[in-house]
Amino acid sequence: xxxxxxxxxxxxxxxxxxxxxxxxxxxxxxxxxxxxxxxxxxxxxxxxxxxxxxxxxxxxxxxxxxxxxxxxxxxxxxxxxxxxxxxxxxxxxxxxxxxxxxxxxxxxxxxxxxxxxxxxxxxxxxxxxxxxxxxxxxxxxxxxxxxxxxxxxxxxxxxxxxxxxxxxxxxxxxxxxxxxxxxxxxxxxxxxxxxxxxxxxxxxxxxxxxxxxxxxxxxxxxxxxxxxxxxxxxxxxxxxxxxxxxxxxxxxxxxxxxxxxxxxxxxxxxxxxxxxxxxxxxxxxxxxxxxxxxxxxxxxxxxxxxxxxxxxxxxxxxxxxxxxxxxxxxxxxxxxxxxxxxxxxxxxxxxxxxxxxxxxxxxxxxxxxxxxxxxxxxxxxxxxxxxxxxxxxxxxxxxxxxxxxxxxxxxxxxxxxxxxxxxxxxxxxxxxxxxxxxxxxxxxxxxxxxxxxxxxxxxxxxxxxxxxxxxxxxxxxxxxxxxxxxxxxxxxxxxxxxxxxxxxxxxxxxxxxx
Length: 514
Hints:
Layout: H1 2-142, H2 146-195, H3 197-202, E1 205-209, H4 214-220, H5 225-234, E2 237-239, E3 246-250, H6 254-270, H7 275-304, H8 311-319, E4 324-325, E5 328-329, H9 330-347, H10 352-361, H11 376-386, H12 391-398, H13 410-423, H14 432-447, E6 452-458, E7 463-468, H15 475-492, E8 500-505
Parallel strand pairs: 7-8
Antiparallel strand pairs: 1-3, 2-3, 4-5, 6-7
Helix pairs in contact: 5-7, 6-7, 7-8, 9-10, 9-13, 10-12, 10-13, 11-12, 12-13
């Protein structure tokens, strides 16, 4: 048993020795590995150090190169500035020498002028003496003093002036008699154009269409109370007659007619038509129209690039939408005139913004809230002055029909562009009778030529079709005929744009099968 325990103890000791030996070996290996790691770290640190040193030297070289480059550039600038300074000094020296020469020349010239003045004074004294001697000789020869001779000369000049004035007056009277008829026609035409009576003739009614004639009775109301309330609220005469499915609104104020039309539309659509409802709807529509007028004026100013316009002028511009002249909408006419003025002002080197502003406002005198006894150009000028527009714009408004004198270049531009916009083909509506007469005159003029069978004026009188007989005119004569008709129309007739003349010659062969 003791031996067994001894053996076990020996084995344990041997195992412990083995473990200790293993631990010692592992410790030696760990120390060796640590040394290797430390050596690797030292090598890496040396490599990093060398790399950083290289990078530092490169950065230093780069900074040195940039500094040298900046120094060279600054040196070049300094040298350039020195060169400019030397050149400027040379120029100043040259200028000083030239100024000195100029002063010398001026001194010489001043001396010459003084010498000439002395000579002229002596010459003038000699002339005065000669003039006195000649006057004494003339008085001695004529036996008259200078005062008496002057009076006789004045009397003779008066007689000649009276004779010339009488002759000039006679010439003026003769010329006035010859041109009186023409001048009277011009004044009448201008007066008609300013009064614009055609606006009342062609645009004083609005037709309101209805679905059935039963609505007419509801609009009239019991004993006519509805229609009386509507006329009193709108200020428009409402004509309900036998015209099928239509009611006529008559009045000279286009804004009131529009209010009456919209109010009628809402009343008919709603179905409730009685005096209280009529007054409520008319008041509501009137506010809508006023708001629409302001919005139209603002939109027009924005489209044309016009800023800083007084709110009242903006409202008057919006009212132009409901006014027309000879069938031409006043707002469209004013916009067109404004754009034409801007183009023409640009071509002439003037301010296009002022020209566009004057062109837009030139007809505001046609849409006033009151109706004073003034031409629309003068009224528009007074409105523009009231709302602090510039003097040249006010003058352009007032002078576009020659009511006042033109004081700026904007005035003739506005006058010309107003005429261009109103006179272009298709801008204004013709009276029906004049339109039909012009078409008949075209057809009768072509029918007056021999060989013409039929004539047709088409496309509102802008084309004339002439049919000739094939047995009376050959192909060569058709071309000659079209030229003669064109020349005669050009010489004898007044027409918008141009008229195209087409001569048609055809041969027909007709047979019958029996």
